Every structure is written in structure tokens, then in C-alpha cells.
Amino acid sequence: MITVFTPSFADEANTNAQNLTVKEIVSRLPPDRFRVILLGHATPDPRISARENTEILPITQHGNALRWLTRVLLSKVDVYFFPRLGPLDAFFMFLRRSLKLPVALVTYIVMALNEIPVEPAMENSIRDGDLVFGNSRFVSQTIHERFGVSAGTIYDGVNRQFFHPPANRRPVGSKLTVLYAGSLQARKRVNIVIAEAAKRPDIEFRLAGKGEEENKCRALVNELKCHNVTFLGHISQEGLADEMRRADVFLFPSVLEGHPQVLGQAAATGLPAVAMNFYRPDFIVNGETGYLVESENEISHRLGLLLSDIDLRSKMSAAAVKHAAHFDWGKVAKDWEMAFVEAVSKRRKKPHSQPTDTIEHRDG
Questions:
Q1: For the chain, give me the number of helices (H) and strands (E)?
Q2: Which residues of 86-119 are buried (b: 16+ CB within 10 A; e: fewer)?
Q3: For position 306, which CATH number holds?
Q4: 319 and 200 in one domain?
Q5: Cβ neighbours around 338 below 10 Å, total
Q6: Where are the beta strands (DSSP E) in the chain?
């Protein structure tokens, strides 16, 4: 039995991308082989609460990091998975080094590191990790280029129970819809989606998500007199899947990303996507399942191509569904099973007086 701790939340309503990832992994780990400890603040995901050999550490008003750390140390944890940048992680990393704890560190990086500042805590988790992974080939490449650490790739998966193609094709002649899904932050460049809506008043644009830029986005909609833009706010995974099945094109102009799960989810529902090529997402095959573009002008051009050609949309839709099958959560969870076993074996074979190196691992 391998005991895995992750400083991630099991809450059903928590849709933070990193917590969504962990919930999907944990719910699929065999309980007869893996005991899992994670955190909780509200009602847990029912798959997690029903899982045997699972412990959820509650959050309280004060002293959480120390209480959680004590519980982790007393539980004889084998793997510390997906470290973050909080005080709990800092305390654990310090004790692991100073006390030479025989706990394998499995680091998962979900943001390309080529153009962003990296905090010391993240750098330590990369350099000290027994195994290090990125969530796309490009993310893994940036880890190696920046720190000289060899990183494998395990993708974020797609829950195809929710994200699947529509049962029936949209009626010919129905109003076309462009969907954006993601937080409303400056780096997501939702203003570009709104600008495209202003150019295409006969197309419906739907924006799923919330964030600090929402007021600015609403002001821009009013300024440009866009009557074809709908703010959906925060929606559940099931709700997002329904929106994707009702849409015709997914538009995602963000330039600072890791490997956005929404691109894989869009592909699984058969939704052709237009996204930026700066972070080289593997969820899109350029020219086959959608378009990866280099500029705002190309966004507008490629979006126009898709909206004007139903045959092109149908062709890309079918290809996207086929491509998304490579990212099924069942397959991804198997990769994590092997990674945890490998990390524990590697940690036990090496002296604990020195941090271990990472090795190449499988591509998802």
C-alpha cells in the first residue's frame, strides 16, 4: 500500500484547474493499492468521499498548515504529490531536507516556465523532486531548458462522461455560436473575444467564467454596443459540457498558459478551437482539429473561416473527438499509478542525504 498526500482540495464545488486534476486522479486510483490524504473545506466530491482508504483533512480558522503537516508526518506518507507555494509546502520541504525524510516528492508543473518569474518554492520543488512532470510537451521542455531538470509529460485528462459530442447535429441554418470558457483575467485577453463579437453581430458569443476583469469586459461590451454577448458566470463541469455541445467554435485567445483543460474538453465535445500557439497546446492539432495562431489578425481570419464553412467545422469536429480519446482520464490515471510506484522505488534506493534527480517519463 502506497500512501499519497496532496495539498489539494477535494471539494465538489472547487473548479480550480489543479484541484479538478487531483480529484480526477484520486477518484481513479485503486483503493487497495493507494491510500490518499488530501484537504477539504466544504462538501467533498462524492467520488472522493465514497472512495475507501481516503482521508480528507478539514480546514479550520487557524493553524491549518501546522496541523496538516503533523498529520502528514504521523501518517508515514510515501509520496508528496503536486506541491504548491503555500506555508504547508514550505514547511514540508524544509523538514524533508533537514530530517532526510524518506518521502518521495512528485512535482507537477502546469504552466510554461519560459516567460514567467519562478518563485524559489517552485524551483526547489523542481530541483528536489524525485520525479518531475509537465502537463504538456512544451511545459516539460521549458522545465528542462530553464533548470536543466529532465521532466516527463503526463497530460491533464478529459472526463468523457461529461465531455462528449452531441447526440444530434445542430440544425442547418441555426444561429452560430462562439464560446469562450476560462477566468476573466487580463492574461486571458477576453477583450479579443468581445472585439470579434463586435465585428460579427449575427453570431452569438457566450463567455463562461468569472474574474477580476469582468467589469471591464462588461464595460467594453457596452462601449462596442455588442448585443450578441452573454456572460454566463461560473458554471459547473456539466454545464460547461452542455455549452460546448451547443456551440460551433471555441475561441481561446490567452497567451500565458500551461496546457488549458478547456481545450481538451472542447475537443472531446467535437468543438473546433482557435487558440494561440505560444504555449503549443497538444490538445489541438493545427489545421486538423482547429487552429493555433500567432496574432490577433490570424485569430480573426481563422475564426471567420470556421464560421463560414460548415463542412470545415464538421471535418474538424470529427477529428477533434478522435484526438481527444488520447487524453481520457482512465489512461492518464494509469500513468500516475506508475509514476507513484516509480517515485517510491527510486526514493527508497537512494540515500536521503541528497536530493534526487528526475528522469524521463512517458508522454500521455
A1: 13, 13
A2: eebbbbbbeebeeeebebbbbbbbbbbbeeeeee
A3: 3.40.50.2000
A4: yes
A5: 12
A6: 2-9, 34-40, 54-58, 79-81, 104-109, 131-134, 152-153, 177-181, 204-208, 229-233, 249-252, 273-276, 290-293
C-alpha cell at 70: 503533523
Residues 282 and 344 in one domain: no
- Residuewise pLDDT in 10s, the chain (364 residues): 999 999 999 999 887 888 989 999 999 999 999 999 999 999 999 999 999 999 999 998 888 999 999 988 888 899 999 998 889 999 999 999 998 899 999 999 999 998 888 999 999 999 999 999 999 999 999 999 999 999 999 999 998 889 999 988 766 667 999 999 999 999 999 999 999 999 999 999 999 999 999 999 999 999 999 999 999 999 988 999 999 999 999 999 998 888 999 999 999 999 999 999 999 999 999 999 999 999 999 999 999 999 999 999 999 999 999 999 999 999 999 999 999 999 999 988 776 544 434 334 444 4
Q: Are 281 and 345 part of one and the same domain?
A: no
Could you tell me if residue 364 is inside a domain?
no
Q: Are residues 181 and 36 in the same domain?
A: no
Same domain assignment for residues 342 and 275: no
Q: Containing domain of residue 33, as a range?
A: 2-157+328-349
Confidence (pTM): 0.86
Taken as a whole, the chain contains a residue count of 364
